[in-house]
Design goal:
Elements: E1 7-11, H1 18-24, E2 28-29, E3 32-35, E4 38-41, H2 50-58, E5 64-65, H3 70-82, E6 87-91, H4 99-113, E7 119-123, H5 128-143, H6 148-158, E8 162-167, H7 171-176, H8 182-190, E9 193-199, E10 205-212, H9 214-228, E11 236-241, H10 245-258, E12 263-268, H11 271-277, E13 282-287
Parallel strand pairs: 1-2, 1-6, 6-7, 11-12
Antiparallel strand pairs: 3-4, 3-5, 8-9, 8-13, 9-10, 11-13
Helix pairs in contact: 3-4, 5-6, 9-10
């Protein structure tokens, strides 16, 4: 291991494929969730496969989530600081979780112990593979020899250019999270209305529009890409899904038929984000001029 190489730490809300995490030996903060009567560690569906999780949710099991506590961050950061490594932690959006505040508190406490430590906490203002898209590019830069300052500057310059577009299959999960009203969820379900949502510049999940029917909602995501994507031939597009691989592939095929992108990477929405978005969620991430 190169002791001078910066360390990039990510969290499980990036929803990156576990095979990628393992291949690149990326240090990870594991979020947790409470499900079926006990606490579980989000480990990219290694210990509990995605279908088992989402089938249980479909049958009525309701997972809940909580922010990462400060001690978890201290335990993860300290060994790198003891070895005088420069550390960046790319964190799940502060508008969707209090974990960013826990990480900042951990940083303040560690700086009292290690006054010369080089530890940067970045609020990604992103979620799922939007956060993952930032991490994926930063890891590539790190492998190519980028310095810590170059990584931090690139992430800060580009994080609000990562477009996040979502549609959900079941409005009741958004109702639980307060994203739609009880009446809107009931009427929308009756009429087969599917919301189109995005993550805004503050990192909040915001309803933008509605369409009728599942296929139209997925096409609506593609249409958003058509409207705002920049330099598609230079991009790897990310799609995440809540146990809906066929629909994710349908969206990937739409993109590939319209653009000569470098690649389209499909991954699962993990249990922490999936606890709020529910089964059947489809999410699309790419670089645009703005979100």
């Amino acid at each position: 291991m190169d002791s001078k190489k910066p360390v990039l730490i990510i969290d499980t809300c990036t929803d990156l494929p576990y095979s990628y995490i393992e291949k690149h030996n990326i240090p990870v903060i594991n979020f947790t969730y409470h499900f079926q009567g006990r606490e579980h560690i989000d480990d990219f569906f290694v210990s509990k496969d995605s279908k088992t999780f989402y089938d249980a949710v479909r049958s009525g099991e309701m997972p809940t989530t909580s922010q990462v506590n400060t001690d978890v961050y201290i335990e993860k950061f300290r060994p790198y600081l003891e070895n005088r490594r420069s550390v960046i932690y790319l964190c799940f959006s502060s508008a969707l979780s209090g974990s960013f505040n826990s990480a900042m508190l951990a940083r303040d406490m560690l700086l009292e112990e290690f006054p010369d430590a080089d530890l940067t906490i970045i609020d990604s203002k992103s979620a799922s593979m939007g956060e993952g898209l930032l991490a994926w590019n930063a890891i590539r830069m790190l492998d190519e020899g980028a310095s810590k300052d170059e990584l931090v500057q690139w992430i800060e310059r580009n994080k609000l250019k990562v477009a996040h577009w979502f549609t959900v299959d079941d409005l009741n999960h958004l109702k639980r999270g307060g994203r739609v009203s009880v009446a809107a969820a009931f009427i929308g379900t009756m009429l087969d209305i599917k919301p189109i949502l995005h993550v805004d510049d503050e990192g909040r999940l915001i309803p933008v529009s509605k369409v009728k029917g599942r296929k139209k909602s997925i096409r609506a995501l593609f249409e958003r890409l058509q409207e705002t994507i920049v330099n598609p031939e230079d991009q790897v597009i990310f799609i995440s899904h809540g146990d809906s691989p066929a629909d994710a592939q349908y969206l990937a095929d739409l993109i590939k038929s319209g653009y000569s992108v470098k690649d389209v990477i499909i991954s699962n929405i993990g249990p922490v984000i999936g606890a709020h978005s529910g089964p059947g969620t489809i999410a699309l991430f790419f670089f645009a001029d703005k979100r």
